[in-house]
């Protein structure tokens, strides 16, 4: 006799945290607790590289959230990935 199983095998299901919100590692920068803080040195360096490659100039006083949004945008327009 074959038993019907409506649940998928746990080994086939990726581990998640935080419930139905989905991927908790990617938050909208607008929701970051520290999003209003100045961008980090690593963000500044990477954003400088991406902006130069794209031929853009960006303000040097971006917040962490703003820098992240520009990084995502510029990565999407280039061959670079995170």
Automatic annotation (TrEMBL):
Residues 1-43, 57-82 are annotated as: Disordered. Pfam families: DUF3072. This is DUF3072 domain-containing protein. It comes from Nocardioides alpinus. The lineage of its organism: Bacteria, Bacillati, Actinomycetota, Actinomycetes, Propionibacteriales.
